[in-house]
Amino acid sequence: xxxxxxxxxxLLAGLCGCTYINEEDLYPINxxxxxxxxxxxxxxxxxxxxxxxxxxxxxxxxxxxDYTSYTGVKERVDDxxxxxxxxxxxxxxxxxxxxxxxxxxxxxITEWVQQGAPQN
Length: 120
What we know:
By secondary structure, the protein is mainly alpha-helical. Helices cover 48% and strands 0% of the residues.
């Protein structure tokens, strides 16, 4: 009888004393930090990985503009062609041609453009 009460007591103490925290609730997979977007820390890595690649937005590449420098990217921001192309707008040439950028990458570039596309 004593062991039965001890077992029930341990079970109740365990149920009351523990909380279940789901790691996905604490660190959502879809989280996209656009609060501190910069050209050097956020936009340039996306451009280097997806745009300024061999045959594309590089000197001598097939795509218009040289994205190997801030100046080249800023020219596309200023002429209004960057955001429509990364957002796959029907009236723009979709970039990159092999598929869309992630929603997070698009959000970061969009935020940077909305901030005035600073060279930071």
